[in-house]
Design goal:
single chain, mainly alpha, Methane Monooxygenase Hydroxylase, Chain G, domain 1, 63% helix, Hsp90 chaperone protein kinase-targeting subunit, protein-folding chaperone binding, unfolded protein binding, protein kinase binding, heat shock protein binding
Length: 497
């Protein structure tokens, strides 16, 4: 196969091989000038390429936002005049600007952020529109409509100009890069082959919390045990389970240095978060999202709402990336960095709802901690058939038919008993009525567990009296304070007898 030597045509020589001498200038000076000229042009070309790339990237972020504003002004909402929309947008950028900015800019300098650039443009368009309307000398009735049209025309003009600027910079960048590739420099030299094996970087290990969460989600082995039938069975967890829960809580709030730094990135700084993830692979690991939520809970509990919300925000970033499948993070961040308002609104709404739910959980946890925990009422039985449910379906009918063996009973007494059962049932809370109608002990316990002890005891007495849940027939013991006292008194009477 013939060798290809055409690449050597791209060499840019800076020695004396192609320098023609001058009788009044020594050749060494000419060589130095030639070398300096080559290096200066090369550095200038690199600077131009970097500048064009940065400017194109910045304009690609601003262009869809400006285009969206122009579209809203071009087809105004009848309920909201164009001038009101424009002024509210300017006021929003002035009061609550985002610190998101192009790489290398200072986020604390408003004019260097995306919102600051957009605000400057809107002010410029607003001033030009006011000047044009004032110069035209319109009446007060026509001023609002004329000003709105001038704002729409001004934004449309800037959309066209920005599109032309992007196309022009893209063409210039292509020419600069093409010129750069014409010359081989020391930066283009690289090893063709190497006999040294460089192993790939190992995948970052998942956080300890990931394994423990997987363990808690696995189905537990069913075992058969004998339990004593009690009313108001205490919620006592095994010591081993309590230890596991404490370790789980500790691991959730325990952040690695990279994840802790990631959690401190401001809200809506999507570009900054994406760069951080690209530079720190150990942020996108199993358990990272749960650890951030745990840190958010702890921060809210410690009265640090700002940091807590940041942790929720960053946790949901990782969750969204995971849910979007392969290259999910890339898809998510491209939408956010490009300024997709619909996608950003959906995400930020999820952040607000998740944070509000977390705040409510922290509030309940703090209240329970102040009260030293809650005592609850629960029903338990060794066999499900021991607890029977006699749920009335309605009031007693007008004509009662007594069954076999009940002929001697007073029909009016039976009617009053059935009416009492129905009245007691309808007087129960709606959620307890629905739970009783399922005739499932688990569902009834859920409702009883949410009640205060006094209220639950009183309801259980009414259920027993009406025969809806007849404890006396099932052999279930009443372990409430009142039940224990009654049982002790009955035992004392038996001993006396």
């Amino acid at each position: 196969m013939p060798l290809n030597y055409s690449k050597w045509d791209q060499l840019e020589l800076s020695d004396d091989s192609d320098i023609e001498g001058h009788p009044n200038v020594d050749k060494k000076s000419l060589i130095r000038w030639k070398q300096r000229d080559i290096h200066e042009k090369r550095e200038q070309r690199k600077t131009n390429i970097a500048h064009l790339r940065a400017q194109i990237a910045c304009n690609h972020v601003l262009f869809p936002r400006i285009q969206s504003i122009q579209s809203s002004l071009g087809s105004p909402d009848s309920d909201k005049p164009r001038t009101v929309y424009f002024n509210s947008l300017v006021e929003q950028l002035e009061r609550n600007p985002s610190k998101e900015c192009p790489p290398g800019n200072d986020p604390d300098q408003l004019e260097q952020t995306y919102d600051g650039m957009l605000l400057s443009l809107l002010r410029q368009v607003g001033q030009a529109a006011n000047a044009a309307v004032k110069e035209a000398g319109t009446t007060d009735d026509q001023r609002e409509e004329k000003l709105g049209k001038a704002l729409a025309d001004g934004m449309k003009e800037h959309v066209v100009r920005l599109r032309e600027t992007i196309d022009k910079d893209t063409k210039s960048l292509e020419e600069e890069e093409k010129e750069q590739k014409k010359h081989i420099t020391s930066e283009d030299i690289h090893d063709g082959f190497s006999n040294q094996y460089v192993p790939p970087k190992p995948e970052p290990a998942p956080l300890p919390i990931a394994a423990k969460l997987d363990k808690t989600t696995k189905p537990k082995t069913k075992t058969t045990t004998t339990e004593i039938e009690v009313l108001n069975a205490p919620r006592v967890e095994a010591a081993a389970e309590e230890e596991e829960e404490e370790d789980l809580d500790d691991d959730i709030a325990n952040l690695t240095p990279s994840i802790e730094a990631f959690s401190k990135i401001p809200l809506r700084a999507f570009e900054q978060s994406f760069r951080f993830i690209q530079q720190h692979r150990d942020v996108v690991v199993p358990g990272a999202s749960d650890s951030l939520l745990g840190a958010a809970f702890k921060a809210q509990y410690d009265n640090k709402p700002k940091y807590s919300k940041q942790c929720v925000h960053q946790s949901l970033l990782l969750q969204y990336g995971d849910k979007l499948g392969v290259d999910g993070l890339g898809v998510f961040f491209r939408k956010m960095i490009a300024g997709d308002k619909r996608a950003e609104a959906v995400f930020m709404d999820d952040v607000e709802k998740t944070y509000a739910h977390l705040v409510e959980r922290v509030k309940r946890s703090q209240e329970e901690a102040k009260q030293g925990g809650r005592e609850t009422i629960m029903l338990a039985s060794e066999n499900e058939g021991d607890i029977t449910f006699n749920i009335p379906t309605g009031p007693p009918p007008d004509e009662l038919v007594m069954g076999e063996g009940m002929e001697d009973m007073d029909i009016e007494e039976v009617r009053r008993a059935l009416q009492l059962r129905w009245d007691i049932f309808k007087g129960l809370p709606d959620n307890l009525q629905k739970a009783l109608q399922t005739e499932e002990l688990t569902e009834v316990n859920k409702v009883l567990g949410s009640m205060e002890v006094d209220e639950a005891e009183e309801i259980l007495q009414r259920l027993d009296m009406a025969g809806i849940i007849p404890f006396s027939e099932s052999g279930v013991r009443d372990e409430t304070p009142a039940g224990k006292a009654a049982a002790a008194a009955a035992a004392a009477d038996d001993e006396v007898d």
